[in-house]
Amino acid sequence: MGYTADGPILWPTKPEASQPVNETLAFLSDAMVATASGAEQIRGLRDTPRRTFAFSSLLGRGNQRIADAIRFDIGVRQFLLPIFPDQQWLTATAAAGADGLSCRTNGFDFVAGGQAVLWQDPQTWELVTIDSISADGLALAAPTVNAWGPGNKLMPVRKARLADVPKATWHTDTTLALDVAAIIDEPCDWPAAWPTATTYRGAPVLEWRNEVSDDPTDEYDRLSGTVDTDVGPVFYYDLPRMPFRAQSQNFKLYRRDKHTVFRSMVYMLEGQLATLWVPTWLQDVQLKAALADNATQLHVPWMGYSQFGYLQQNRRDIAIELYDGTRFYRRITGSAESGDEEILQIDAALGVALDPGAVRAIGWLSMCASASDSFQIQHINDADGVAYASLNWRAVKSDV
Questions:
Q1: φ/ψ of residue 358, rounded to 5
Q2: How far is the C-alpha of 192 from the C-alpha of 236, rounded, in Å?
């Protein structure tokens, strides 16, 4: 099997192994924010995200001619794009006429009614249509034409179109480097779920810490402005009278289970639509004295909370994280200065005695949404390996 007259066009170039595959999931949100209060109304405009893949390929041994021929002719026509991060080697032989394939399916982009490709090289491959999916394989809508087995790859495929004609760089007269950007041309569903079932004050809590290879950033945005007539004093206004924290967070997706959890969270966020509690992951508050199991007062070094924090929204909830992984979430209900320290009143005791040395971090907890409708996953290997992703969070006004 392979390319035939009037047959389907399978994109022939695999990503260069030394370069990442960048996958983007783009939702679309429409938001209205009340300048007077900071309250917002937001709606999602896409049922599923637009999905794109960008990657580089290095071709030779005659395969550059196939790629160049398709690049020359395809224009805006639809083709089939292998989902390269979901490739796997076959571990069992499927004889010619097989009506099923033994393979892994959990966390892979297989779809009942969709297609997959059995792949040997750019000229030797076979498309199959998936009838149903089980935990250990695929049932096919029609039997295979050829025999396939170990040494061959299996990949899901999606209908796609080129975002632009790929740019080529010829390193030699027979070696072609190609930059490809493809837009998936069909809906891409995925099960939406939060990474954990933990909730606080009726909303989910993110308990996935920063990946620390890149330094996170934060800033405080305000819905402020000025009125300047040029002939009199400038009028400054900040009607909500509150800051909205914006912070970045990096994720390392190691192995397919982490890829799956992150993708499910992205679908749960649905662009900027959904909200959840997000910690700063910083040591914003330092516990100064040991805490009894029934205590509701935190003694901390003076930090200006009573003067500048004073129970403002998104600065009255805290995440207490211990080195053993235990987490507590509490609301500050009052504060007072006492010499060189402050006393923070919390709404409920922790129920366990706590020594300051056991505390990894006490950070502010803000109700947040994604600051963007687009999410990018940088696949360093296939999804059994490593990928990186980042999110920008923005605090929202919350009445909880």
A1: -90, -5
A2: 43
Look at the alpha carbons of 55, 59, 63, 68 in this order and tell me if their dihedral is positive or negative: positive
Which residues make beta-bridge pairs with 184?
160
| 133/375 Cα distance (integer angstroms) | 27
How is residue 210 written in tokens?
A: 């920063």
8 A C-beta contact, residue 14 and residue 372: no
**Domain layout of the chain by residue ranges:** 21-184, 199-395
Name the residue among 3, 55, 292, 303 with its Cα closest to residue 166: 55
Label residue 400 by pLDDT band (50, 70, 90): very low
**Digit-coded pLDDT (tens) for 264-301:** 999 999 999 999 999 999 999 999 999 999 999 999 99
Buried b (16+ CB within 10 A) or exposed e, 338-349: eeebbbbebeee
Beta bridge partners of 154: 88, 118
Helix (H, G, I), strand (E, B) or coil at 99: coil
Residue 39: CB atoms within 10 Å? 14
pLDDT band (50, 70, 90) for residue 10: very high
> What's the predicted TM-score (pTM) here?
0.92
B/e letters for 46-84, b = 16+ CB within 10 Å, e = fewer, are eeebbbbbbbbbbbeeebbebbbebbeebeeeebbbbbb
Look at strands 21-26 and 374-379 and give their pairing. Answer: antiparallel
